[in-house]
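Postdoc handover notes: sequence design on the structure in folder B. Input tokens:
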């Protein structure tokens, strides 16, 4: 009888242990799913650089990593042109972009796209916004919603990198580290030419909706052509597939509203320029790591490299042939540099 009782108790213990493990695994999955989920927060009226007001401004964001955001562990990650915070979460997870242990990463939809205030979700005429307006909205989110007076770092790519430069100019004491990648503090002539062409194409499409699909196809074609070097582009696509690819260059999800959003953000980048603030003089700035692509055909790497030289910033130059998309092409080098830069002063 004693042996039977011991066997029953042993079986019960095993079942109880299995149940506990299942519950813990379920809680882990639940936390993983909820981590990175989008939220939108009203931040009130936002006074814009142009003198207008963006009424009932909303900011969308996702959090990945630690949910407890503090001044010591928070990294702000604003979106690239046309990007969303959920895409940033996917990028970090897919490529293990950097070690998130102990960090609270707040990925933010920049004004003009995603679930933040934009032409597609705002009633009436949407005012012109600037890169600085994007930063002012993000600062308001961190201060008023998260209660943060400072953070550990700001990182962003392309237009997100412009926001990083603007953060350093507008709130230089708010963060310890800044990481702009494939970006610029001052768009060059070729950059502005690209933005101007895209804005004109969008305006034409909106004025002539009967030709909108063909015009938007040209816009998408320009982006595809400039995103990589021609050698890289030719290596990815076969000549015999051209006609089929060209006809599908205008995806079904490219709606009129999305292009209105893009126009707003293109215009913000077209008029962005920190030269008036930084000039050619050394400024008191946070610590910078600047990542450039030497063959970037969307944002000329020259101004970012000059900024790094003037301010004695760390610089990582990529030569992959992937142009503006170089970060994921040379992800190992980027990951190693990011972890080295972030972890050397991080106190968990």
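Designed sequence:
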């Amino acid at each position: 009888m004693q042996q039977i009782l011991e066997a029953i108790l042993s079986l019960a213990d095993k079942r109880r242990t299995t149940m506990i493990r299942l519950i813990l695994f379920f809680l882990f999955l639940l936390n993983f799913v909820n981590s990175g989920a989008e939220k939108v927060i009203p931040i009130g009226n936002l006074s814009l650089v142009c003198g207008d007001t963006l009424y009932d401004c909303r900011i969308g964001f996702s959090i990945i990593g630690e949910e407890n955001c503090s001044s010591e562990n928070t990294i702000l990650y604003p979106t690239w042109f046309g990007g969303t915070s959920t895409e940033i979460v996917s990028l970090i997870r897919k490529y293990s972009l950097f070690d998130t242990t102990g960090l609270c990463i707040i990925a933010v939809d920049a004004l003009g796209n995603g679930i933040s205030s934009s032409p597609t979700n705002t009633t009436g005429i949407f005012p012109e916004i600037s890169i600085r307006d994007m930063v002012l909205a993000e600062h308001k989110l961190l201060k008023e919603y998260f209660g943060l007076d400072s953070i550990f770092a700001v990182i962003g790519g392309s237009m997100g990198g412009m926001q990083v430069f603007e953060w350093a100019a507008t709130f230089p004491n708010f963060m310890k580290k800044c990481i702009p990648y494939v970006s610029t503090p001052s768009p060059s002539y070729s950059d502005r030419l690209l933005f101007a062409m895209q804005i004109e194409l969008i305006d034409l499409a909106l004025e002539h909706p009967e030709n909108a699909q063909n015009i938007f196809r040209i816009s998408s074609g320009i982006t595809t052509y400039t995103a990589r070097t021609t050698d890289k582009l030719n290596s990815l696509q076969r000549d015999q597939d051209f006609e089929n690819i060209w006809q599908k260059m205008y995806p079904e999800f490219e709606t009129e509203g999305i292009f209105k959003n893009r126009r707003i953000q293109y215009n913000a980048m077209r008029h962005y320029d920190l030269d008036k603030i930084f000039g050619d003089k050394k400024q008191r700035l946070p610590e910078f790591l600047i990542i450039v692509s030497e063959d970037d055909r969307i944002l000329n790497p020259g101004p970012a490299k000059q900024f790094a030289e003037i301010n004695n910033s760390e610089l990582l130059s990529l030569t992959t042939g992937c142009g503006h998309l170089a970060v994921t092409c040379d992800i190992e080098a980027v990951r190693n540099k990011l972890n080295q830069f972030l972890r050397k002063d991080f106190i968990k």
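Context for whoever picks this up: The chain has a mean pLDDT of 87. Don't rerun without checking with the PI first.
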